[in-house]
């Protein structure tokens, strides 16, 4: 059976395409989803791609991933820098986690330099735009082999 990857996108990522394009580019989340689907097909992965503006909903989805997914790719967006709850949920899920950011968070405001997710991630990719999602899927596919 194909390995299943849960792809989670945090708050405001539904606005991609119109939100601060100088930072996040002109691609929409739908464009990223389409690119991820094509990459997953090439890698033989099953994808479940979601976005939420609500911390609790993301926590619930991470809890449900246990037993339903083999890995998690997450762009926690602003919750990266604030959410102990998402950190705890990812730790409890006990699955390989790839953390992705479109922008290079280390080049931006100081409050973006720390992520609560990074310490529970298998790997972190930032600054490569939507290519980061593709690279993360490739890394997870390797890890799950
Ligand atoms: C982001 C970076 C975060 O600091 C920010 O809050 C986001 C998007 C990124 O993909 O670059 O919403 O995760």
UniProtKB/TrEMBL annotation:
<dbReference type="GO" id="GO:0003855">
    <property type="term" value="F:3-dehydroquinate dehydratase activity"/>
</dbReference>
<feature type="binding site">
    <location>
        <position position="88"/>
    </location>
    <ligand>
        <name>substrate</name>
    </ligand>
</feature>
<keyword id="KW-0456">Lyase</keyword>
<dbReference type="Pfam" id="PF01220">
    <property type="entry name" value="DHquinase_II"/>
</dbReference>
<comment type="pathway">
    <text>Metabolic intermediate biosynthesis; chorismate biosynthesis; chorismate from D-erythrose 4-phosphate and phosphoenolpyruvate: step 3/7.</text>
</comment>
<feature type="binding site">
    <location>
        <begin position="102"/>
        <end position="103"/>
    </location>
    <ligand>
        <name>substrate</name>
    </ligand>
</feature>
<dbReference type="InterPro" id="IPR018509">
    <property type="entry name" value="DHquinase_II_CS"/>
</dbReference>
<feature type="binding site">
    <location>
        <position position="112"/>
    </location>
    <ligand>
        <name>substrate</name>
    </ligand>
</feature>
<dbReference type="InterPro" id="IPR036441">
    <property type="entry name" value="DHquinase_II_sf"/>
</dbReference>
<dbReference type="InterPro" id="IPR001874">
    <property type="entry name" value="DHquinase_II"/>
</dbReference>
<feature type="binding site">
    <location>
        <position position="81"/>
    </location>
    <ligand>
        <name>substrate</name>
    </ligand>
</feature>
<comment type="subunit">
    <text>Homododecamer.</text>
</comment>
<feature type="site" description="Transition state stabilizer">
    <location>
        <position position="19"/>
    </location>
</feature>
<comment type="similarity">
    <text>Belongs to the type-II 3-dehydroquinase family.</text>
</comment>
<keyword id="KW-0028">Amino-acid biosynthesis</keyword>
<comment type="function">
    <text>Catalyzes a trans-dehydration via an enolate intermediate.</text>
</comment>
<protein>
    <recommendedName>
        <fullName>3-dehydroquinate dehydratase</fullName>
        <ecNumber>4.2.1.10</ecNumber>
    </recommendedName>
</protein>
<feature type="active site" description="Proton acceptor">
    <location>
        <position position="24"/>
    </location>
</feature>
<keyword id="KW-0057">Aromatic amino acid biosynthesis</keyword>
<feature type="binding site">
    <location>
        <position position="75"/>
    </location>
    <ligand>
        <name>substrate</name>
    </ligand>
</feature>
<feature type="active site" description="Proton donor">
    <location>
        <position position="101"/>
    </location>
</feature>
């Amino acid at each position: 059976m194909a390995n299943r990857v849960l792809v989670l996108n945090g708050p405001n990522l539904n606005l991609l395409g119109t939100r601060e394009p100088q930072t996040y580019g002109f691609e929409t989340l739908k464009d990223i989803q389409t690119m991820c689907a094509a990459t997953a097909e090439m890698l033989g992965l099953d994808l479940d791609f979601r976005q939420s503006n609500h911390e609790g909903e993301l926590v619930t989805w991470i809890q449900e991933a246990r037993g339903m997914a083999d890995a998690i790719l997450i762009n926690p967006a602003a919750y990266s820098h604030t959410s102990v709850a998402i950190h705890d949920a990812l730790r409890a899920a006990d699955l390989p986690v790839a953390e992705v950011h479109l922008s290079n968070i280390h080049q931006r405001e100081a409050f973006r330099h720390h992520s609560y997710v990074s310490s529970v991630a298998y790997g972190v990719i930032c600054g490569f735009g939507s290519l980061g999602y593709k690279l993360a899927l490739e890394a997870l596919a390797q890890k799950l082999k």
